[in-house]
Task: structure prediction
Amino acid sequence: MTSFSYRDAETDCEGYIAVPAGPGPHPAVLIAHNWAGQTAADNGIADRLAAMGYVGIAIDVYGKGVRGDPQGDNSALMGSWTADRAALCRRLLAAVTAAAADSRVDADRIAFIGYCFGGLCALDVARSGDGRVKGAVSFHGVYAPAGLPPEPISAKVLVLHGWDDPMTPPAATVALGHELTAAGADWQIHAYGNTMHAFTFPPANNPAGGIMYNAAADRRSWQSLTNFLTEIFA
Result:
């Protein structure tokens, strides 16, 4: 494992970095984890991105050694961050700053993606107006506006969403489109029919709770990400 260590004020964070072969610097894609915290699954996404020619960085929102239960209820762990969105934004931008300072990264070509809670993180990075991030991608993420003073959104935004996701029902998806339009964003929302929450996570199997893996949506969303990264880093 190649760790990616950085700090947010007095807090140590420990993520994972995967670097492509060949001379750099390379475009970078930061990956925000779901509510369980940074895991091997996020590292695998970083490896997959490195194979495509990007520096993949699986970030650590919760802090070094703070992890939840991948199969359990992590609402309390996540809730401390969703309750203080300004602090969350600072933590996320600390990862962007660390990535931009890494000699292997092309600081002018950085994207930020995330899954579930991480999807909210990606949207909040876009909402911050930080111009270092060229694109933000939410996979089955939560949308909730931050309640912070709005900033113009300069990052291109891609939202990959299960239409039957009970955590982000259709009305919330429409509201997000209005929010992104008002912020002047270049945005896309891809909604997948007959698709629930956590559609990219193979172990997800709780249809009664609205959580279910969907192989077709998983494949289509990754292709959409691939196309999006090619566009923003051109």
User: Anything to note?
Assistant: The two ends are 30 Å apart (CA to CA). The first helix runs from residue 40 to 51. Residues 69 and 111 are 27 Å apart (CA to CA). Helices lie at 40-51, 75-82, 85-101, 117-127, 170-182, 215-232.
